[in-house]
Amino acid sequence: MPCDFSLKHYAEILRRAKKQRYRIMPLGEFAKSKPKGRVLLLRHDVDFSPRKALRLARVEKKEGVRATYFVRVHHDGYNPFGFKANAALREIEALGHEIGLHYECNDYAHVAHVSAEEAMRRAKASLEAALGHPVVACASHGDFTGISNKTFFAKRSPKKFGFKYEAWEKPFRKFFYASDALGKWGTGRCVCAELGSEERIYLCTHPVYWFREFYHTV
After folding, report:
1. From CA 150, how far away is CA 13, in angstroms rounded?
2. Which of 23, 140, 145, 200 has the fewest Cβ atoms within 10 angstroms?
3. Which domains can be identified in the chain, with CATH numbers?
4. pTM for this one?
5. pLDDT per residue over 10-31, tens digit each?
6. Which tens digits make up the pLDDT trace of 115-142?
7. Chain-centre distance for alpha carbon 212
């Protein structure tokens, strides 16, 4: 099977990982148990479409694995309270996956003229209201204003805001990181090529780049 951004190839990546005895898990499960040996962490940044994220969630359910989905609350194109978006998020959770906040608090603080701490509290409360339960995971989203959101927790503890973990904490930084940002593998080759050579892999995908059919190789 060619390496592309099709749902079929994503399923093949998961099957290859299982065959090579990787423990495949969401970030929250790893943060809690920190198993040794081969591990494949599954993270999805829902930058644009919860409905496209749901496609990956269904593939994962079929393959018997779970992942973490980080959801935005400031994107102009979707609203976690929206009928279709909310239904997709609730189904993702029903399939056994974890949902966290894809925070943009430094950006929002600049736009809304509030403190970054207040921006974080508002965003967390908004997603919790949309889901109907506490949100305990978070990951920064790329900046909108040119002010990096990654700096928010440089001198702050995630626990202060009710999070159990942040996606860039030290335990995760020890993994080999593979991301499909902007529809290209940051490593220059598909993550399936890393299976076997890298023992601990942190896979971060963006569902908007994955399709039912894909018409050229990557």
Report:
1. 29
2. 145
3. 7-205 (3.20.20.370)
4. 0.94
5. 999 999 999 999 999 999 999 9
6. 999 999 999 999 999 999 999 999 999 8
7. 20
